[in-house]
Write a structure and sequence with these properties.
Layout lengths: L2 H5 L1 H11 L12 E6 L10 H13 L10 H6 L16 E9 L2 E8 L4 H20 L12 E4 L3 H13 L17 H10 L5 H5 L11 H7 L2 H13 L11
Antiparallel strand pairs: 1-3, 1-4, 2-3
């Protein structure tokens, strides 16, 4: 193990979790970090409705059955809270964490069925491109190509990912986080707490979009919502980005 990884704060968390006998990365499941961005790095979310529509699709299209998505559900339930009244789904993937940025998105996924990842990714990419082109009266490719996918291979990688995904919005206001030069940690934490388009708030215990997440895998590791908040604070003090984690 190289010196950079030995010094990584998340490595210390792994040791502490093992000592406390908390569950770490489930060995019986596979996990994947997926990403896609706009062609020529163009923005793929231009307003609040675009973000909400994509999150709506993360829930509705996570289904083995064919789903016809329309705007009426989103208009009647703009905060996407009334999931209980909808038809039961045959879920393709568990969504452990996500972040939507103006020109790209990150997902941490685990397949529920064989071929679940490619089927789900195809659905959400095609669905968003169709919606976006229709709304903005454009034609042509929206995404730069097929989505990127990295298999999570070990515990350290698995434990880095939620932080890396949830910290992506810092690029908008605190890009120095990638070089471990944060001078205003309080401002960083407040900014992350104000950013709606990720699963960070749900892991803090603030209900944002909990119905489309499976938080059990990571909460078994983090412990409580308060423990997660403490890990975020400590992680920010010693941020070191592993190249295997940071796909762009």
């Amino acid at each position: 193990m190289d010196n950079r990884l030995r010094k990584s704060v998340i490595h210390r968390y792994t040791s502490a979790m093992q000592q406390s006998k908390q569950q770490t990365m489930p060995t019986e499941q596979n996990f994947y970090h997926t990403l896609n961005r706009g062609v020529d790095r163009r923005e793929i979310f231009l307003d609040k409705q675009d973000y909400l529509r994509f999150i709506h699709n993360l829930y509705e299209l996570n289904n083995e059955d064919r789903v016809e998505t329309t705007f009426h559900t989103l208009k009647e339930d703009p905060n996407l809270t009334d999931f209980a009244s909808r038809k039961q789904r045959k879920i393709l993937v568990d969504i452990l964490a996500f972040c939507l940025m103006p020109n790209h998105y990150h997902l941490l996924l685990s397949p529920r069925v064989e071929g679940g990842i490619p089927k789900f990714m195809s659905k959400i990419n095609i669905g968003h491109a169709k919606y976006f082109n229709q709304k903005y009266k454009r034609v042509g490719t929206l995404f730069q190509g097929r989505y990127k996918q990295v298999t999570v291979t070990d515990e350290t990688h698995f434990l880095h990912l939620p932080f890396y995904i949830h910290f992506n919005p810092l690029d908008l206001s605190y890009p120095e986080w990638r070089e471990n030069r944060i001078t205003n940690p309080k401002g960083v934490l407040e900014f992350l707490k104000s950013y709606l388009w990720s699963s960070h708030l749900d892991y803090l215990g603030i209900k944002n979009f909990p119905s489309m997440l499976n938080m059990s895998h990571l909460m078994d590791i983090f412990g409580s919502h308060e423990d997660y908040a403490k890990l975020v604070e400590n992680y920010l003090k010693d941020t070191q980005i592993d190249k295997e984690v940071a796909i762009e």
